Amino acid sequence: MTLSTTWPDNDERRTGGPYITLKSDEPGIRGLFRFRPETALPLNQLCDVLLRGENSLSRGERELIAAYVSALNRCRFCYFTHAAFAALRLPEGMTLVEQVHTDLEAAPVSDKMRALLEIAGAVQQGGRRVTARQVAAAREAGATDLEIHDTVLIAAAFCMFNRYVDGLGTAASDDPDHYAERAQLTGGYLAVLADAQLQPA
């Protein structure tokens, strides 16, 4: 799997370490999990339910929503992580993920998926930016109330995750292999948490 790490040239990137002293040099949210395991557990449980639980949206589609919102929030670590997860689970792979990121209107996704991604993009701007017209369009395209609900919750959750990761100044690897390897984990987000906690401090 090829993972592009291109990012807008005007992206503001921090240099140096995170703003607080962590217990490991793991990038992004993984170091934060080790710092505060009491909050890491419910955060990973939420991710497991939203992105891996039983749902009429595929795991790839849900990861695509997470990646799209993370791109809108310009969160490098979360975008590259969930882009890799989505690419592994979508037949069109990274090509589709990047098309959605760069031009949602022209991306070759279903009408339902486009409508849900538009709702996710509205949530990223602010909860009240979601309109009745957007919800009606999603329903007309075949989205269920559960799919609309989970789209909004995934988008809202990833606004939180993105701000958590970037608000504490954590680093994001520019090595595509790092994200591709993480995407191969099969045990879910709770396994990611366990793996992070087992890494030597």
From TrEMBL:
Domain Carboxymuconolactone decarboxylase-like per the UniProt entry, residue ranges: 37-86, 96-169
GO molecular function: peroxiredoxin activity
Top-level taxon of the source organism: Bacteria
Pfam families noted in UniProt: CMD
NCBIfam families assigned to the protein according to its UniProt record, in alphabetical order: peroxid_rel (TIGR01926)
Protein name, per record: Carboxymuconolactone decarboxylase
